[in-house]
Amino acid sequence: MAEHKHGSMDIREHEKTFAGFIKLSIWTAGISIGVLIFLALVNA
């Protein structure tokens, strides 16, 4: 088994995936808030 060297792993793909997840989460939250505001205004 090879010796582990801290910080030597390439994590570019992990960072891109996490950034995409955060972007999707922000869009989902924004759309959900927009839908809730729309529903509140329509039912008023």
TrEMBL record:
Pfam families reported for this sequence: COX4_pro_2 (PF07835)
Statement: the UniProt record of this protein carries the keyword Heme: no
Top-level taxon: Bacteria
TM stretches of this protein: 21-42
Cytochrome c oxidase subunit IV bacterial aa3 type domain location: 4-43
Keyword set, alphabetical order: Membrane, Transmembrane, Transmembrane helix
Record-given protein name: Aa3-type cytochrome c oxidase subunit IV
